[in-house]
Amino acid sequence: TMFFNIDELYKTFSVTNAKTARFEVLDNGQVKIVFNNGYNVFIKQSLKPEVWHIWRFSSFDKDSVDTSILEMRPKTLLWIFKSTEYMVGDSVLHLDGVEIDREKDKLLFMSSDGYRMSYIKILEKPLPDARDLYKPTRAFFIARGVRTMIALLKKVKENVKIGLSKDKVGFLVNKGDMEIEVVNNNPNHEYVNFHRVVSNVDGKKGTVIEVNTKMLYNSIKSLPPTSSHKDETVQMSFGVDDTELKLSYNKDDYESTVSLPMKVIDVRDGVDSVSIGFNYKFLMQTLKLWSSDKFYTEDSTGDVRLWFTGEREAMKMVPVGMDNVFVLIMPVIL
Q1: Burial (0-12, 13-18, 19+ Cβ within 10 Å), 165
Q2: What is the pLDDT of residues 201-256, one digit of tens each?
Q3: Cα(329)–Cα(315) distance, rounded to whole angstroms?
Q4: Residue 35 phi, psi dihedral angles, 5° rounding
């Protein structure tokens, strides 16, 4: 077993443009890397960590009652991770990743940065030889693992195996003649109660409007004059009898307003109008993703529904025809 600084090792390989390499351990502890194009590189090994765990996908025992093993199409898994990764809260330990839950015949993928939340529900069939197919499991896949999977899945054609247990989540990826394992162990992870957030939102009646996703994206994009203003607030305003949604931006001596067609779907009791502000960046990141033709399924319409349940409550965004996906965004409290 050899240990290396991963940045140093990457730089060594990236400058050689070689196709193959041979590692030779020398008597002085150095490692000689012999490349097929004539390069010879000497590199020092790093100090051996005090604790070194190598988790293998084979550790997901299909005969264990605490394990679920499934398969998923790489395009589906890539779509899921790209739809959740941008919301990961890197600065907060218990938000630094995507929670993956197994519940009966569905998988839930949830992530949050503390100000917004992404929720995706996918129905997938387990492998035929998996035991206890409906054993509920809950695991947390850290952000750097998610980013590794996004890079891998872009060039993968074969189905990806997913292993879930009470303390770890893993993926087995076949890329050409290579079998790549990405396993994340987290037995002591402090979880956020995503399900509590979801149940609170689902239990509230809101004022709901429907707009075209691309039109909403382009309208918001046109508001700030320069990129330096793009962390500011976009105000959404409409009356329940209106047919247009008004978007406004006001910063120092600059003000901009744009309107776009909308349809009122439902009205919360006692509400005549809605006026609420949201972070420009948060809106744009979700709408840019949802504006892509690759995001939608055959049942989607290209529109988005916006739920407003209160001035201090999160707005719920749902692509029409895709009830298995939603995003929550907290308002800016002025």
Answers
A1: buried
A2: 776 788 999 999 999 999 999 988 766 656 689 999 999 999 999 999 887 778 89
A3: 5
A4: -95, 155
For the stretch 173-192, pLDDT in tens is: 988 778 888 888 776 667 77
25, 33 Cβ separation under 8 angstroms: no
| 104: region left, alpha or beta (phi > 0 left; psi from -120 to 50 alpha) | left
Q: Other C-beta atoms within 10 Å of 167: how many?
A: 15
Of 178, 165, 266, 257, whose CA–CA distance to 219 is shortest?
257
168 Cβ contact list (under 8 Å, min separation 6): 55, 59, 60, 139, 183, 184, 185, 186, 187
Which stretches does DSSP call E strand in 143-284?
Answer: 160-164, 168-175, 178-185, 207-212, 233-239, 244-251, 254-261, 263-266, 273-279
Angle between helix axes 74-84 and 143-153 (nearest 10 degrees) is 140
CA angle 251, 255, 258 (to 5 degrees): 125
Instruction: Count Cα atoms within 13 angstroms, Cβ side, for 51.
Output: 1
Which amino acid would we find at residue 6?
Answer: I
Are 287 and 327 in contact, with CB atoms under 8 Å apart? no
pTM for the model = 0.79
Query: CB atoms < 10 A from the CB of 293, how many?
Result: 7
Tokens describing residue 196: 């509590």
